[in-house]
Design goal:
54% of the residues lie in helices and 19% in strands. By secondary structure, it is of the alpha+beta class. A hairpin with a 2-residue loop joins strand 6 and strand 7. Helix 7 packs across helix 13 and helix 10 crosses helix 16. This is Inorganic triphosphatase. Pfam families: CHAD, CYTH. It comes from Thalassospira povalilytica.
Amino acid sequence: MTEKQIEIELKLRIDPKHVARLKNAPVLREVKEGRRLMTTHLVSIYHDTPKLALANKGLAIRVRKKGTKGWEQTVKTSNGLREALPSRHEWTVELEDGVLDLDLFTDKDVKKLLNKFARKKKIDRIFESDLKRSAVDLTYRDAVMELAIDQGVVRSGEKEVPISEVEFELKKGHPAALFDLALELQRTVPLLLSMRSKASRGRDLYLDRGPGAYRAAPVELTDDMSAETAFRTMLGQGLRMILSNEVCVRQDLDVEGCHQMRIGMRRLRVALNLFKRNLPAGEAVLLRRLLKSCSKGLDGLRDWDVFLGETLPLIEERFPDHQGVAELRIAAQKQRAKALDAARVMLDAPEYGQLLLILGAWASYSRWASGASAEQMKAMASPVTDLATPLLDRAYKRVTKRGENVAELTTPQLHALRLDVKQMRYGTEFFGSVYPAKKVKKFRSRLTSMQQILGQLQDAAVAEARLSALTPDLSADGHVAVGLVSGWFGARVEHELPGLEEACKNFTEQKLFWK
């Protein structure tokens, strides 16, 4: 066994009921080339300090029993994260028994890591995974990879969570083969991209840390970064927002999760629009279509969450004993339940699985470049600052042109302006880190003022449309309550419109941070 290796793997989620279909998928039978899936019982015990000091430094230490083949111990450390395609340094040595012995490692790099982070620390077992692994080597195009289907649990103390996933580990060839094969299999079997390791699940169990809404950290770019690297960084952030918040929608855990998932999709759409001229058509068009479709599947849920959590409480506070208002809440809750069902249908649709895999591929390597012209390749290879200026210029011109006579805009035109402002906002967040922070902050502040007012006007328009879905089943009191809400929104619009004109004026008169 070679002690030091680099592990590159693609991880996918699969419903246990689909495992048999996967094993019998026609494309899989073809690439197995007669080889059979071999099943092994794997028990992996992960070690760390009580405060997870090793994990905080990017280290994972594992002892594993491989069926009847004995024991081994492994150290893993991140070798840079290509979002959907982690690449890790990995060192493995055989053990006579299941007792951790870090002195058995001989490679100088891992010894240096262990001496720095693990020596003189109390290290003990923290959690374990217990699973059946069915594995086989595959030959696909010019690549060789291992397919592993893992079924079992991750356990910490008395707590455990089920595991059902598929891993493709690259042994030879280009990572593109992993995604291409996964996309082929996805036509037969529902497979969803995963960016969570078993170790991360085990740590969450150990810390008793449940899932919740995930808010992305700001995109950090540097002025010497290529436009392509910056673009892939933006894609990676959006993908992580989608995947990290998906559980909130599936399990209805946190209304903010749906909001952040939509923001992730929106940011991805903005990134694709900003870079549109530098991307070949083909898959870029498909991605935009898939993002629009999947985002639409969350719209109803988010609208009812805003209505029930932000709008209706204001009316209830003013009219605490109004029977129609209470009836309105019950009716809205029924509509929200339907919207939640629709969101879950979207998450189980083939289009959602396809979206995740293509985004994962685009964020992990230069898949976007297929069919790109020499001019597009040159633009994406240039420093991000060279590309940011014209992109921000175009976004700024759209906002100022559409908002020129903002007081005269119709509701649909205000909605279009809001979308342009949102694109400008995300463009500022994407590229802001390569410009002077003080100038960016001032620009973003005035832009945010516009966005907040436009968002409130849009909330009013959406709420009016959603209220129409409630009226058929309401009593006379309920119809009165609808009138109360409509009147409140009407007053709010009248109050906000003058402020929007002032906000637009302040925005257009300021200096541009990228000039």
